Amino acid sequence: MTRVALARAGADRDAAHAAVARVMELLDDPLRHLGSGDTVLVKPNMFQLADGFQTNRDLVAAVAARVAATGAEVVVAERTRQIYQLLGDHETARYARILSLDDCPLRVTDIPGATSLRVPMAIPDVVLDCDYFIGMPQLRTHASVVYSNAMKNLVGLLPGYTTRIVHMAGVDESTVDLNLLRPQHLVVADATVAIEGNYPMKGIPRRVGLVAAGTNAVAVDAVVGAAAGFDPGEVAYLTDAHRRGLGPADPAEVEIVGETLADVAFTLRRAPVRIEVPRPGIHVHADRACPACQRYIAGAMQALADELRRWPGEMTVIAGPHPVPPPRRGAVVLVGNCLYEQRDLGIFVEGCPPRAIQLAAFRYAMGREVTPQERTQFRVPAHA
């Protein structure tokens, strides 16, 4: 059976190093075959600067130190230049080259077996050429995909704003496609601090004190999700990955070593699932939408609740295929790819589902100012 190791971790540096040593021991040292001449890419989740919203830096340093001890070259990379600020002066830089994927040469490549990303993609050379790939995600609830961990961390392999392509093509299947492109040899998942609530629209760091590791990303995600109180079967990218043969999506099919699931169990407060409008005059027609777009709108209504209550206008939000458009009153926001053919009926927010930054479309509909970058995230019909 595929093995996943669980270890408790305290809040300080020594505890992080001890937790990494423990999971490596439980996995029979998956780094033992590395040596001089190998290039090892480590991909944490570090594109945000807010406290608590990134992979534990001490865990990253602990993994980088163990890899460097084998004689291999270590590269720690993330898709934005925030990583230089987060790790440039950190212990990690003693063992690894810190790199933003936005600064890397790109190579256009196909993804064999892709179901959504079926066109050639521009991928950083270091991603394609590394000899060994380690994913270091941070566990987060997610308003679109239920929860995010090892598999979705690979969306951050795409440089700059090309992550938009993933949502336009379909985030769940695209996540699996990226895992086909660059399988993870090892995952060291960080739940020392997890993000709960309405992430990525809003989220709250929560101290959990857990580290999980394994050599199969699907298995790690299934086990970590189960530990956090989720049913992995409700996560579309996990069921798709299992269907495509990438790994077991049922924790019962995984050998769990170290701590038991029962001993480390906790419950993350998840992003909203049910759409609740904040006041009369906000009309939502999303009964025909897919679950991901319904979750997106539920998250948007929660994230924007105070603004919508203060705004005196009327708004209609539509999602999903509607052969006959529903009644439209006030400002109109169209959510999701299904409405492309009807995009001139209102402000169109593309994606399957859209991204958090596209909440700017709702603010624009309320007459609020948005930044130039936010304005690129939605389409306004010419007649508006």
**Largest sheet entry:** 10 strands, mixed
Helicity level, as a percent range? 25-40%
**Over the alpha carbons, how many angstroms does the gyration radius reach?**
21 Å
Order of helices and strands: EHEHEHEEEHEEEHHEEHHEHEHHEEEHH
Beta fraction of the residues? 15-25%
State the shape.
globular
Average pLDDT number: 96
Say how many strands there are.
Answer: 16
Structural class computed from helices and strand pairing: alpha/beta
**Total helical elements:** 13
How far is it from the N-terminal to the C-terminal residue, by CA?
A: 58 Å
Give unreliable regions as ranges: none
Write the layout of secondary structure elements.
Layout: E1 2-8, H1 13-26, E2 39-44, H2 57-68, E3 73-78, H3 82-87, E4 97-100, E5 106-109, E6 121-124, H4 125-129, E7 132-136, E8 138-142, E9 146-148, H5 163-169, H6 171-181, E10 186-196, E11 204-214, H7 217-227, H8 236-243, E12 254-258, H9 261-264, E13 282-285, H10 291-303, H11 305-310, E14 315-319, E15 331-335, E16 347-349, H12 360-365, H13 372-375
Parallel strand pairs: 1-12, 2-3, 2-7, 3-4, 7-10, 8-10, 13-14, 14-15, 15-16
Antiparallel strand pairs: 1-11, 5-6, 8-9, 10-11
